[in-house]
Amino acid sequence: MGSARIDETVAGSIARIASEYHDDIEADECFGTLLGHLREATESGYGFIGEVLADRQGRRCFSLRAVTTDRGYAADTMEVDDPQTAVGSVCIAGEVLIRNAQGPDGPERGLPPGHPRIDSLMVLPLYAGRTLVAVATLANRRHGYSPECLERLQPLVRLCGTMIRAWADARERRAAQAAVHGNLAAMEASIDGMAIVGEDGLFTYVNRAHAVLHGFPNGAKLVGRSWQTLYDERELECFRREIIPQFMKHRQWRGECVGRRADGETFPQELSLTAMADGGAVCVVRDITERKLAEGRIHRLAHYDALTGLPNRRLLHERLGQALLQARRAGRILAVLFLDLDRFKSINDSHGHETGDALLKAVGARFSEAVRGSDIVARIGGDEFVVALTNLGREQDVVVVAEKLRTGLDAPIAVNGETLKASVSIGISLYPNDGTEIDVLIRKADDAMYQAKARGRDG
Description:
The chain is α+β, with helices and mostly antiparallel strands. It has 3 domains: 3-169, Beta-Lactamase, CATH 3.30.450.40; 184-291, Beta-Lactamase (2-Layer Sandwich); 304-455, Alpha-Beta Plaits (2-Layer Sandwich). Helices cover 42% and strands 24% of the residues. It has helices spanning 3-20, 27-42, 86-93, 147-181, 184-189, 208-213, 233-250, 289-303, 313-330, 344-351, 353-369, 396-407, 438-455, and strands at residues 46-54, 60-67, 97-99, 121-128, 131-139, 193-197, 203-206, 252-260, 266-275, 281-287, 333-341, 376-381, 384-392, 413-415, 418-420, 424-431. A hairpin with a 5-residue loop joins strand 1 and strand 2. Helix 1 (3-20) packs antiparallel against helix 2 (27-42), helix 1 packs parallel to helix 4 (147-181) and helix 10 (344-351) packs across helix 11. The chain is elongated, with a radius of gyration of 35 Å. The chain starts with a helix and ends with a helix.
């Protein structure tokens, strides 16, 4: 087929495709028609076409939609998901593949057993914009395929990608619309909050669960209102900046945000949005307050000391790591103080564990009062505490704070009807002089604390 003949055939195919397409077209008809036009334009004896989808890991996979059945070859035996095959390689690379020569890299490389003979092959990635939506394989063109043939075919190739995207979008809209309008009874009975928002942003349907969730007696109270009344200005800014652009791009969105009830109370929610054919959207809302509370409890157990409420060793390492990074960038000093209560075991033995625990809580509170909000106070076990002083300009500042921590225990502590006296031994290490790593700084402060204790307690 000469260049003029290809151009004429491509032009005719484009006109027929544009006139024949409609939103209700079925997959077999859509893909079969496009494959037929591609085969006709190239005079190919064989071909197949399929969608390019994404699996759960986000990897491209090929879903066969139409195939020529010359020589009785069964479509369901085709192994087109193997990256060693022509189709598999194009799915991954997204680039045209032409094979005419015989040999190890010839057109029959990677074909499954029983496949009809292939003398020449061209595999076309079909794009809608920058998205790979399908792959078409054409084979057995007399005299093979050439770059000139590919260039002449480009207008038809681009239209095929556009039409496949239009078909896929129409399929999704039909599914969402049928799920909504065909199942209003199920929506009303759902324990999830469900609503339909029109193109103008006003509610056209709200089920009872959605209404109650937002503090309204029934859905009728919300119909005709803007969806924006259910969010405060801070959350609406998040919608404008992030959620709506993503929804407009992908025609769906799912994530977490903060809703507002009729009385102004806010609550965490899981929100799912699905676009409808008429420009509106289906909204599904779940109250995730209990889940967030449970997550908060789990986080607190993992990061905070259960007795004193202070950061534990794990959170100390996280925050100290951030503080060290800031100190490196700013060229500032950071100090780690290791504090160990004196004679705590004898207090525990003579007054009981309950009193000992109360003393530890009181001591932790006094340590927290002695430092700045930007500093870190942590209990790492038993009667041991670590204080990290951040963003220091002079080494002398460390001595001042250490003395403040020590004298903070001078006043007697009243616990469980008893008055106790506590004292502490303190060891200090400095970044960067004594080390640049968290574990090194803590270990050196610990060593310094034992030296202070050996010289005499309360030092």
